[in-house]
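Hey, I'm writing a tutorial for new members on how sequence and structure tokens pair up, and I'd like a real worked example in the thread rather than a made-up one. If someone can provide the structure for the chain below, I'll link this post from the tutorial.
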Amino acid sequence: MNPISRRALMGATAAAAVAAMVGCGKKEEPAPQAAAPASAAASAAAAKPEPLKAAWVYIGPVGDAGWTYAHDQGRKAVEAEFGDKVKTTFVEKVPESADAERVLRDLASQGNKLIFTTSFGYMEPTIKVAAEFPDVKFEHATGYKLGDNVAVYDTRFYQDAYLSGIIAGAMTKTNTLGFVGSFPIPEVLRNINAFTLGAQSVNPKVKTKVVWISTWFDPPKEAEAAQSLINAGADVLLQNTDSSAVLQTAEKNGKYAFGWDADMSAVAPKAHLASNMVYWGPYYKKAVKDVMDGTWKSGRTIWGYKEDANGVIKIADAVPEEIKKKVAEVKDGYKAGTMDPFKGPIVDADGKERLPKDAMPDQAWKDKVDFYVKGVEGKIPSGK
């Protein structure tokens, strides 16, 4: 149909409609279908709830290749799982100070209903701000203080540290291991001790030297500490810090080290013996789902190999096959619940028995670790 005849037909149709309405004595009214789109839009809006706003607070940069990077991978896993049902955000490089309180208040005021605070030093700010925003759920990593709207989550890092110790004990030539520590809190002391115990399980001559740097993320400090350990005779290093600086320093010196919290195999491949992985995604997805479902509750959750929250991956070809086999056996023991790095006897550096033979430690015991095991040299500084 050409444009002219089309317009003519439309005009005739409209005229006929008007005449019919006049003849019936009715006033012209808006077509009822005009309201339909608005009504449909309103129904659609009512049917689709607002996305859950969730936020993460990070101690370091997301590109640290370690701790913060691992947490951000977990955040991305949440986005992949829930799509447009969730809206996530994060703030990086937040100091464990009054700045943390400011950031938390800001995030809560912006409408975030679930906030993850991902470092031990955020514990007090989390508890304080949570009391001011009772309708917001807070999840604090590696802490121990709970509130009505504050939960705590953690992973069994020491399981990985013990496995790395097995590898280190087999690979050392000097029988001296090095450990770069952040703060002398139970979490870190457990890792130092587990690393040492794992090494001693295959090499009783092993001793471990520790350098403390009083920070989680400071690559120059981490590198300096690693170098001092190497200068003191350590030829295999592990760290409880957040960057890849220890591994890179080991490679520069022709020594061995491990990735921590994330896969660092590509960073310094010649030095890399394995990477100690923490997978936060499974827990983050559970926490988000619980909030969405209205089933979230305060409590403490600690996951490990049973929950696929940890892993030692990409073990170097240089590691003997019998050692790889032992690592696999210990992993199986973790999953079965029959293996614990701290199964007694546990004797501290002063010769005092801390756990009797064959005793299995409970979480309360692990929470109070404030000592070095036999074989770790030096004194524990007072600290955080």
